[in-house]
Amino acid sequence: METKDLILIEHFCANHNIEFSFIDSLNEFGLIEVIIHEEQRYLPQGQLKEVEKMMRMHYDLDINMEGIDVISHLLKRIHHLQDDLRIAQNKLRLYENED
Amino acid sequence: MEFIDYYKILEIQQSATEADIKAAYRKLARKYHPDLNPNDENAKKKFQQINEANEVLSDPEKRKKYDKYGKDWKHADEFEKANQQQSQSRGNTGGQQTNRGDYEDFSGDFSEFFESMYGSGAGGRAKQTKFRGQDLNAELHLNLIDVYKTQQQTLTVNGKNIRLTIPAGVENGQVIKITGHGTPGVNGGPNGDLYITFTIANHSKFKREGSNLYATVDLDLYTALLGGDLQVDTLDGKVKLKVAPETQSNTKVKLKGKGFPVYKKEGEFGDLYITYHVKLPTNLTEKEKELFTELSKLRANGN
Q: What ipTM score was computed for the predicted complex, to two decimals?
């Protein structure tokens, strides 16, 4: 039942030429959510971007699962901090003269 | 166009082996990869250089050509391709207020030097969409007044028209995702997404902080002392204010609900804070001086 929102993991792995075990490991580390339906396993479409990012870390940069786990947490923090920084910079505009 | 020293970029000797190159590339890529350096343009540029150096040095044919002609590229016959068309890896956004639209393609964008040596299509080993389409990024420049009300706008991104609803109250620097409007997926993969970053210039007399607005209003001495009515501008039109007698300079008043719309909360508005700036009269006439002197005598201590 591959739908617009759920991607069959088999299909995903075949297209990227990666092993099933990679997705399993991401799942075991709690980095992604795998949905099981009628013995088939799926990835929610919204997760693909993150999975592809972790794929690049693993296959292109040679980073192991523990490393990906740490980086994922740090990236989340960076995103929060970048949001905070944007809000702080907008507040600073209160004290600056714009033309 | 300048010669690019790919060995220097990868921090290796010219005698480096394939394994050395791979190790050097991975070490630097781990430092500068855009996945690990979100929103860092310098890291992105640096990674593109590293990627280009690896593209050449890790390919025996390309490396051989580079080693042979690299420094004399200007004179070698091979470089007739110098004027070949530029890489197509740049997106094209035609929206009137959109000034940037590029693929989130970390491995594209080769230098002029690279393209003059290997042609614009030589980045063949670079990553291509295998499943999910690529994300696109665009910047939309608007004025504060443009985002006071929710509005529809049609953007042309990569040759496609996209009708976009810009919610009132969007903030400067905010990014919104338009799902599925990136490049098409392949082999049944979903399309990429379009990310729009808003840059909001403020040329109005109001300062904005989130949904609150701030403005300074001049108050003449007599209204400040004796009180009275005052008309002030808001983004929603003019409003009449009652100024209390003996209002001091820098007094702040809050006009509830006269601020900026709260993002994605229809009908909800922040507040407008007015700071009074009492203006003292200048060019006093003799008569005025006389009266002020008299007044000052009534206040022995001057307060």
A: 0.85
CATH class of the region B207-298: mainly beta
The rounded distance, in Å, linking the Cα atoms of B228 and B184 is: 64
* Residue span of the structural domain in which A15 resides: 6-95
Q: What is the pTM of this model?
A: 0.77
For residue A70, the chain B residue with the least C-alpha distance is: B36
Residue of A nearest to B134 (CA): A49
* Phi, psi of B231, rounded to the nearest 5 degrees: -100, 130
Rounded to the nearest 10°, the torsion over CA B49, B54, B59, B65 is 40
Partner-chain contact A61 B187, CB within 8 Å: no
Alpha helices (H) in chain B, listed in sequence order: 6-9, 18-32, 41-57, 60-69, 112-118, 221-226, 286-298
Total domains present in chain A: 1
For residue range B52-88, what is the model confidence (pLDDT) as tens digits? 999 999 999 999 988 887 776 555 554 444 444 333 3
A92 touches chain B (CB under 8 A): no
